[in-house]
Design brief:
The protein is of the alpha/beta class. The chain has seven helices and six strands; from the N terminus they run αβαβαββαβαααβ. Strands 3-2-1-4-5-6 form a six-stranded mixed β-sheet, sandwiched between helices. Helix 1 crosses helix 2 and helix 1 packs across helix 3. The radius of gyration is 16 Å and the shape is globular. The N and C termini lie far apart (43 Å).
């Protein structure tokens, strides 16, 4: 049986050189679309090197903002760039070490597609948010909307056909418009009314 490709997230500084500027740009757009008021308690699930966490800290005047990720290397990069309100900790998105209803908003940047399946992570994020709070996320559109990544994988496969199975556009159906829209409408198991969130910003309110 063929092994599925796996992703290893270790070098935060290397990732920043590759994707950092793009992650910061999309985080700015995403946060602006949320239109959240100041003084909220924010949770960033799968925060990586902190692009979204830091944007919330800079733009939303939060009461608190916490970024969680499973990669210590990525979190070192996030802490190095963090302003005062932002805090970071190592955690598994599918089993958050948090009490229920302690945040006003939970967000996630380009991370859900790396979680198999993403539903439990979004259910955990919703559990940590107070009733009526905000749960929102986005992923890259690998099929064409994120031109840098599309060109990268097309070039990689043309140079080395063995790279084709690693193409994130092929590996992650969640990052395609059709499956993404379906995922936005489907609630995670046993969490009625809570939303897994896809390609473009998609919002849900915890009942």
């Amino acid at each position: 049986m063929a092994q599925r490709p796996s992703d290893v997230w270790v070098q935060g500084r290397a990732y920043e050189r590759y994707m950092g500027r793009w992650s910061r740009q999309v985080a700015e757009v995403f946060v602006a679309r949320l239109g959240a008021r100041s003084g909220l308690r924010w949770l960033d699930v799968g925060c990586g090197t902190g692009a979204l966490t830091l944007t919330v800290a800079a733009r939303c005047r939060p009461r608190a903002v916490v970024g969680l990720d499973r990669s210590p290397g990525f979190l070192r990069a996030a802490r190095a760039a963090a302003p005062g309100p932002a805090r970071f900790a190592v955690a598994d998105a599918s089993a958050l070490p948090l009490r229920d209803a302690v945040f006003d908003a939970a967000v996630s940047g380009p991370a859900l597609n790396f979680l198999e399946p993403p539903g439990p992570a979004m259910a955990e994020a919703a559990r940590a948010v107070r009733p009526g709070g905000l749960v929102a996320a986005y992923v890259w559109d690998y099929t064409g909307g994120m031109g840098l990544l599309r060109r990268f994988w097309d070039a990689a496969a043309s140079v080395d056909p063995a790279a084709a199975p690693l193409d994130e556009g092929r590996r992650f159906p969640l990052c395609r418009p059709g499956p993404a829209a379906h995922a936005a409408r489907r609630d995670p198991p046993h969490r009625p009314g809570r939303h897994g969130l896809p390609r473009r910003p998609c919002l849900g309110r915890r009942p």
